[in-house]
Amino acid sequence: GAVDTCLESGLWNFATRAIKIEYDPGIDPDFGFQRGFVKPSDWVRTGTVSADEYFTRPLKSHQFADEGGYWFSDIDSLYVRFVSNGANYGGDLGNWAQSFSRYVEAYLAEYIAPKLTVSEDRLKRIDGQMVRMLKSGTAKDAQNSGTSMPPEGSWNRSRRERGGGYGRRDGGTRGSLIG
Description:
The structure is a single chain. The protein is α+β, with helices and mostly antiparallel strands. Helix content is about 35%, strand content about 20%. The chain has 4 helices and 6 strands. A 3-stranded antiparallel β-sheet has the order 1-6-3. The chain has a 3-stranded antiparallel β-sheet with strand order 2-5-4, with no helix packed on it. Strand 4 (about 65) and strand 5 (about 70-75) form a beta hairpin.
């Protein structure tokens, strides 16, 4: 379970898998969303759920649910990006980033340290090292991802819609606070 615990701690690029999944007609939800999707056996952590294959429109919490071994939604197909412990992803040590390997080492050290020592200082130092390795590993791994832009905020969106649809950089007037 140590590797799965470490994989679950971040959205590691080397362990990320993207799939298109169709709803399972054998799943009949009692209420709410109408479609049920069985999570793959190699699923560890959900990254993004989308209605399109390019993940440009991620689904929000009112459009899907992640519950137990299932995803639920009202659409027939989901595109899901998730952390996998499969043999070609997170389960393959050859794919591991060096920083992830260091994090796993630190996690195991933190796990077994109480069995080997009673020194509070040593235990705190090992715990601190594990936290640093996780932060460092996830930061380095994130740098290997493409740049993503946050969605436009409601304030900007409402200004654009009221101002004639000139887009995010319409300039506005500098002489008043409202536009």
